[in-house]
Specification:
Elements (H helix, E strand, L loop, with lengths): L1 H28 L27 E2 L10 E9 L11 E4 L13 E5 L3 E10 L11 E4 H7 L8 E8 L2
Parallel strand pairs: 2-6, 3-5
Antiparallel strand pairs: 1-5, 2-7, 3-6, 4-5, 4-7
Length: about 160
């Protein structure tokens, strides 16, 4: 009789664990999709380089001839897939910006401080308009270059195309 009680108890424990596991999976999946909607695409994790540290901030002004330097307005954006949370930039296509999941060169950007940053994306940046931006800074890049709040939206910068 004791053996049966032990077996019945084990069965109940297994059933409870199974129900709890199914319940957890069901809540992790989320609410049902509306009729006719397709499920979202699965997230793809891209390899990420180690994020730059504040120690990577350069002192002074970038070297190079004045013709290598562009002065204009920078905006900010949350970041690029595969590079979220890292100090990166997007450039207008005319300045060499493009997205292929890799670093496509580097630029030195100066506002209150200077930093050499990887180019990992492109932006329209209102190119060839009166509202033109010369660079789009990830939030982490903005913090390296300026103490201005992100909500300010735009800052004046000097941009040097490194490679």
């Amino acid at each position: 009789m004791q053996l049966r009680v032990g077996v019945v108890t084990a069965v109940f424990v297994c059933a409870a664990l199974l129900v709890a596991d199914v319940g957890t999976a069901a809540t992790a999946i989320g609410p049902p999709l509306p009729k006719g909607a397709s499920p979202p695409a699965p997230a793809v994790e891209l390899p990420q380089a180690r994020p730059p540290e504040r120690g990577a901030v350069l002192a002074g002004h970038p070297e190079g001839s004045p013709s290598d330097e562009i002065v204009g307005t920078a905006s900010n954006y949350a970041g690029t897939a595969g590079w979220m949370g890292q100090a990166t930039v997007a450039l207008p296509g005319a300045l060499g910006g493009r997205y292929d999941g890799q670093v496509n060169g580097h630029v030195t950007v100066c506002a209150e401080r200077c930093a050499r940053l990887p180019v990992v994306d492109w932006c329209h940046c209102y190119w060839d308009t009166g509202d033109e931006r010369i660079v789009d800074l990830s939030h982490a890049a903005w913090e390296l270059l300026s103490d201005a709040p992100l909500a300010e939206g735009l800052i004046e910068v000097r941009l040097q195309l490194d490679d």
